[in-house]
UniProtKB/TrEMBL annotation:
Example GO molecular function: ATP binding
Tagged with keyword Nuclease: no
Keyword Ribonucleoprotein: no
PANTHER family cross-referenced by the UniProt entry: AMP-BINDING DOMAIN-CONTAINING PROTEIN-RELATED (PTHR43272:SF33), LONG-CHAIN-FATTY-ACID--COA LIGASE (PTHR43272)
Official protein name in the record: AMP-dependent synthetase/ligase domain-containing protein
Keywords: ATP-binding, Nucleotide-binding
All copies of domain AMP-dependent synthetase/ligase, residue ranges: 71-508
Top-level lineage group: Eukaryota
InterPro entries linked to this entry: AMP-binding_CS, AMP-dep_synth/lig_dom, ANL_N_sf
Cross-referenced Pfam families: AMP-binding (PF00501)
Cellular component, GO, one term: membrane
Length: 697
């Protein structure tokens, strides 16, 4: 492939191609060195926080919406200032050190504690105390491990033991979970409850999670003590720290900053060990890419903080002296929080953005009658303007239509960053128009500190995730077992490999996986399949590790097929599966109710007119999913779509099961916190259904 020199968005390192690999790509700003993001004064997460806290102590930092018990409603955002947070960070950090020293059993253990670099778990929803605890941990050269329910109770226990956690800071219901599992996590010495004493007492009396005998913090403390664990409130630990005389103990750049556990699709999660250098470089790479315009960045916090994307973005906002507004916790009401906060920046995931797209298109371009006609004309004109470099605004059409859709999130919005999975071209373009804002796709992983590539500013082209981000390098390498080769025409294809200062140190206590992923000379093999484009951008087209073989010897990449299926307007979610002794593949499909129900009802109406039969409750979503004729028509529809999308015969589903219950994070647990399918869990959940599908004629 020849690169398009007139439109090159990356630097091609001369003479860097070797057999089986593409040339190496760099960001255009770091042609000579990957050290461009190393800063003489900002080398750690500690430095990032204190740089802003000292410069702007009186500016707002962490926002939250108090709940009015009388009105039974969330109030407008209130804010903790940088200076207030700094005081709490120092006191809490000192307090954590002090209470850990109270619980050591030997001189040797005391020496280990005083050397720092031990772990503290944070087990909480997104809230100001998450970030306060994070920086408190950092202030003593300790490192955090985030826990979350979406990994399951057994994974929570595994992580606590695997990372040798002795102290857990969490909200009440999470600390109760830890206490209930204490026999399986015997190293826990202390738990710190984030809520106040009054809130703890009210919650214990209201929900009685431990029965009628535990109605106050005193009762809870006694139970905890009987289990060999001391229980504190966060206010108490801050007071202990304030009186302790323990000073900050700043970390070094190569010290561990955090261990993030990958949610994974099979087996136990892997602990990704990340240093301060890793995350500081990642934060600075995205900070350089943020659209500033002299405006203080404001971001809504809702992405899970035990995971790389959410954590990195919060560090970026802190680096930029911005404001973090924490959501109230109900994802279905995230946009209500946005309207209250008015963010300038929204970190998105394709699943949420696609829902927004469905909602907006139904009300505008897909609306019936004159409303739809006008909206389609408005969209067409704005799209042409945008593609011609005239920006995201249009004085006439915005006043008439798109100011309303824009205000659904924020009238101050200037950037949406989409990560964790590919975003469809249709969704990206429509939301740029409807929200009057830049949408930029980014690509990274836990192991790369969430950085890797990102579209350059105001790049409205589609189908790629941009060139290498600041301070990063990218290349592709052959994956012959999947027929992805760097010699492919018209464009090279292969496994995406990334190098830079943001690459993780190792998988905790897992030498085999570390050696399989860190392939030498600083390169990390991501397991993602990419395509290198003529302009130096990368497109993510497949996943390496999920492939399986069917009986005729063909390799099937289910994620590739699922991504294509989910582009169809009738499909919301898809799970593709098969076996080595079977000659075809099958799918579990969750239809999109907004499009599927009217489509299926139309088929039923036609059948009723022809046969005169109409079943009771035949029009409900669940009954439509079970209707054999509907299922058959649906299979025809997506099979034709699959062929037109370029899938070959063995990649087209032969049988499907329509599931009316969506895959989710907490209900059936089939999605990771970043909304990726947990393939191993899906295989278990649908085992009998899959067996029946293969057994039926």
């Amino acid at each position: 492939m020849r690169f398009n020199e007139d439109n090159l968005k990356a630097y091609v390192v001369p003479n860097s191609a070797v057999k089986g690999s593409t040339p190496v790509l760099r960001n255009l700003t770091n042609i000579e060195s990957l050290d461009v993001l190393l800063h003489p004064e900002i080398k750690t997460a500690y430095d990032i926080f204190w740089e802003s806290a000292k410069k702007i102590p009186n500016e707002p930092y962490l926002g939250y919406r108090p709940f009015d018990k009388e009105k039974k409603a969330f109030m407008p955002y209130e804010y903790l200032k940088y200076g207030e947070v700094a005081k709490r960070v120092t006191n809490l950090g000192a307090g954590l050190m002090h209470i850990r020293l109270l619980h050591c059993n030997s001189k040797e253990e005391k020496e280990l504690i005083e050397r720092r670099q031990w772990s503290v778990a944070i087990y909480s929803n997104n809230r100001p105390e998450w970030m306060i605890t994070e920086f408190a941990i950092v202030s003593q050269s300790l490192y955090s491990v985030g826990l979350c329910d979406t990994l399951g109770e057994s994974s929570m226990e595994y992580i606590i033991n695997h990372s040798e956690i002795t102290v857990v800071v969490g909200i009440l219901d999470k600390t109760i979970k830890v206490l209930r599992s204490i026999k399986k996590v015997p190293n826990i010495r202390a738990v710190v409850v984030i809520e106040s004493t009054q809130d703890i007492n009210e919650k214990l009396r209201a929900s009685k999670p431990l029965g009628d005998s535990v109605l106050s913090i005193g009762d809870l403390r006694k139970i905890s003590k009987d289990l060999g664990v001391d229980l504190y409130t966060i206010d108490e630990v801050e007071a202990i720290g304030n009186a302790s005389g323990i000073k900050d103990f700043p970390p070094k750049p190569d010290d561990i900053y955090t261990i993030l556990y990958t949610s994974g699709t099979t087996g136990n999660p892997k602990g990704v060990v990340l240093t301060h250098t890793n995350y500081t470089v990642s934060a600075r790479s995205y900070g350089k890419r943020m659209r500033k315009n002299g405006v203080t960045p404001v971001m809504i916090s809702y992405l899970p903080l035990p995971h790389g994307y959410g954590r990195m973005i919060e560090l970026v906002i802190t680096l930029e002296g911005g404001i973090l507004g924490y959501s109230t916790g109900d994802v279905s009401k995230i946009f209500e929080d946005c309207q209250a906060l008015q963010p300038t920046f929204f970190p998105g995931v394709p699943r949420l953005l696609t829902r927004l797209y469905d909602q907006f298109t139904a009300a505008t371009v897909n609306a019936p009658g004159i409303k739809g006609i006008i909206a389609r004309k408005a969209f067409s004109e704005k799209l042409e303007n945008m593609k011609n470099g005239k920006g995201y605004f249009h004085s006439i059409w915005d006043n008439l239509i798109f100011n309303k859709t824009r205000s659904f999130i924020s009238n101050r919005l200037n950037l949406i960053m989409s990560g964790s999975a590919p975003l469809s071209a249709e969704v990206a373009d429509f939301l740029r128009i409807a929200l009057c804002t830049e949408i930029s796709e980014a690509y990274g992983s836990t192991e790369t500190s969430a950085t890797g590539t990102m579209q350059i500013m105001d790049d409205t082209s589609i189908g790629h995730v941009g060139p290498p981000n600041f301070g990063m390098e990218i290349k592709l390498r052959d994956v012959p077992e999947m027929n992805y080769l760097v010699t492919d025409e018209p464009k090279p294809r292969g496994e995406v490999c990334i190098r830079g200062k943001a690459i993780f140190r190792e998988y905790l206590k897992d030498k085999e996986n570390t050696e399989n992923s860190l392939i030498g000379d600083g390169w990390f093999a991501t397991g993602d399949i990419g395509r290198m484009n003529e302009d130096g951008t990368i497109s993510i087209i497949d996943r390496k590790k999920s492939i399986f073989k069917i009986s005729q010897g063909e390799y099937v990449a289910p994620e590739k097929i699922e991504i294509i299926l989910m582009r169809h307007p009738l499909v919301m979610q898809a799970f593709v599966h098969g076996f080595s002794d079977k000659s075809y593949i099958i799918g579990i499909i969750v239809p999109d109710p907004t499009t599927f129900v009217p489509w299926a009802a139309n088929i039923l109406d036609t059948e009723t007119k022809l046969t005169g039969n109409a079943e009771k409750d035949s029009g409900t979503f669940e009954s439509l999913c079970k209707n054999k004729n509907i299922v058959a028509k649906y299979l025809e529809e997506i099979s034709e779509f699959s062929r037109k999308s370029g899938l070959v015969g063995f990649e087209i589903l032969k049988k499907i099961y329509l599931e009316h219950i969506p895959f989710d994070i907490e209900g059936n647990g089939l999605l990771t916190p970043t909304f990726k399918l947990k393939r191993g869990d899906a295989i278990k959940a649908y085992k009998k259904i899959v067996e029946n599908m293969y057994a039926s004629p």
